[in-house]
C-alpha cells in the first residue's frame, strides 16, 4: 500500500518452509533440507537421496518426484497427495503402483475421490490401494470421512500372453457402469486408459507410465524392471517394494489424520 514500507532482512526461511543459505549462490538459490542441500536454479539436490536405494525408478538427485512446482519434498518419501484433478491422481497411482503391479504380477485397486482442503480448495487423491491377484483386484471404496468418489483405478499387472492386459475387460466396464463413475487402468504396455460410463468411450490419457519390457505392445522404455531379471532378483525387488508400500500407507494415514 502507498506510504508503507516493510522489509524483513533477517528472515531465513522460504521455499517450502526450508532455511535459505544466501552465501554460496546468492539470495533464494540454496535451501537447506534436513538431509540435503537443494539448488533452486536446477531444481535438484547436490547429494544423493538417502532413500535412493528404495526408489530405483527415480534419479538419485531428483526433487519431489520431478514435480518441482506443485509437490512437496517429503525427504525421500512419496511426493505427495493431493492433486488438482482426478487425472493427476490417476497418473500418480500409475507411476508407483504400475511398477509394483508389474514386478509382482498382481493387480492393485483404488478409488480416486474429491475433498475440500483446509483452505477451501477442491483437491483429489486416492485411498490406500488394495493388492489383488494376477487376474483381479477387490473393490476398494472410499470411506465417508475421506471424500466423494469420482473415479476408480486399477493396475493390470505384468504382461501375460494369456490375458488382454492392455485393454478394459468386460468386468472392468460393468463395474464402472454400476458405480456410475469413470474407471482408469494402467497397463503393462505403459498406458493409462480411461473408460467413461456416460459416453461409453475409452481414451488413452498417457503412454509414459512404467511398462513391462517383455510386452510386445510396450509404448516406451520406462521399464518397471530390467529386460532380463532372475527369479532371485525379482523376489528381492518384491521384498523392497513391500517395504515401500508400507511406508506409503503409513504416510497416507498420517496425511489423512492431519486433514481431519
Please provide a brief summary of the model.
This protein has helices spanning 22-25, 86-104, 170-179, 231-259; strands at 19-20, 30-32, 37-39, 44-45, 108-116, 122-126, 130-131, 148-155, 183-186, 192-196, 201-206.
Radius of gyration: 21 Å
- Secondary structural class: alpha+beta
Mean pLDDT: 82
**Number of strand elements:** 11
Number of helical segments with 4 or more residues: 4
Number of domains: 2
Strand content range: 15-25%
| H and E string | EHEEEHEEEEHEEEH
Q: Which stretches are poorly predicted, pLDDT < 50 over at least 5 residues?
A: none
> Helical percent range?
10-25%
Major β-sheet profile:
7 strands, mixed
Shape: globular
Intertermini distance? 37 Å
Record keyword descriptors for this entry.
260 residues; 11 strands; 2 domains; 4 helices; alpha+beta; four-stranded antiparallel β-sheet; single chain; seven-stranded mixed β-sheet
Compile the SSE list and pairings.
Elements: E1 19-20, H1 22-25, E2 30-32, E3 37-39, E4 44-45, H2 86-104, E5 108-116, E6 122-126, E7 130-131, E8 148-155, H3 170-179, E9 183-186, E10 192-196, E11 201-206, H4 231-259
Parallel strand pairs: 8-9
Antiparallel strand pairs: 1-2, 2-3, 3-4, 5-6, 5-7, 5-8, 9-10, 10-11
What does this structure look like?
The protein is an alpha+beta fold and 260 residues long. The protein folds into two domains: 1-80, no CATH class; 86-259. It is built from four helices and eleven strands, in the order E-H-E-E-E-H-E-E-E-E-H-E-E-E-H. The longest helix is centred in the last third of the chain and has 29 residues, at 231-259. It starts with 18 loop residues before the first strand and ends with a helix.
Amino acid at each position: 500500500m502507498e506510504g508503507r514500507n516493510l522489509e524483513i532482512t533477517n528472515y531465513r526461511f522460504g521455499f517450502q518452509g526450508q532455511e535459505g543459505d544466501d552465501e554460496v549462490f546468492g539470495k533464494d538459490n540454496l535451501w537447506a533440507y534436513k538431509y540435503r542441500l537443494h539448488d533452486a536454479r536446477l531444481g535438484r539436490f547436490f547429494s544423493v537421496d538417502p532413500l535412493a536405494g528404495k526408489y530405483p525408478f527415480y534419479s538419485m538427485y531428483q526433487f519431489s518426484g520431478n514435480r518441482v512446482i506443485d509437490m512437496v519434498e517429503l525427504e525421500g518419501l512419496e511426493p505427495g497427495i493431493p492433486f488438482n484433478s482426478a487425472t493427476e491422481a490417476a497418473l500418480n497411482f500409475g507411476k508407483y503402483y504400475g511398477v509394483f503391479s508389474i514386478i509382482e504380477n498382481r493387480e492393485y485397486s483404488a478409488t480416486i475421490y474429491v475433498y475440500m482442503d483446509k483452505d477451501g480448495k477442491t483437491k483429489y487423491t486416492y485411498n490406500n490401494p488394495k493388492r489383488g491377484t494376477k487376474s483381479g483386484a477387490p473393490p476398494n471404496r472410499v470411506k465417508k470421512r475421506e471424500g466423494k468418489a469420482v473415479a476408480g483405478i486399477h493396475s493390470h499387472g505384468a504382461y501375460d500372453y494369456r490375458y488382454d492386459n492392455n485393454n478394459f475387460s468386460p468386468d472392468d466396464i460393468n463395474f464402472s457402469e454400476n458405480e456410475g463413475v469413470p474407471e482408469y487402468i494402467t497397463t503393462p504396455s505403459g498406458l493409462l486408459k480411461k473408460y467413461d460410463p456416460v459416453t461409453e468411450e475409452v481414451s488413452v490419457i498417457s503412454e509414459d507410465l512404467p511398462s513391462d519390457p517383455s510386452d510386445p505392445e510396450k509404448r516406451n522404455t520406462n521399464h518397471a524392471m530390467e529386460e532380463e531379471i532372475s527369479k532371485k532378483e525379482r523376489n528381492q525387488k518384491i521384498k523392497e517394494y513391500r517395504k515401500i508400500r508400507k511406508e506409503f500407507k503409513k504416510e497416507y494415514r498420517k496425511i489423512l489424520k492431519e486433514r481431519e
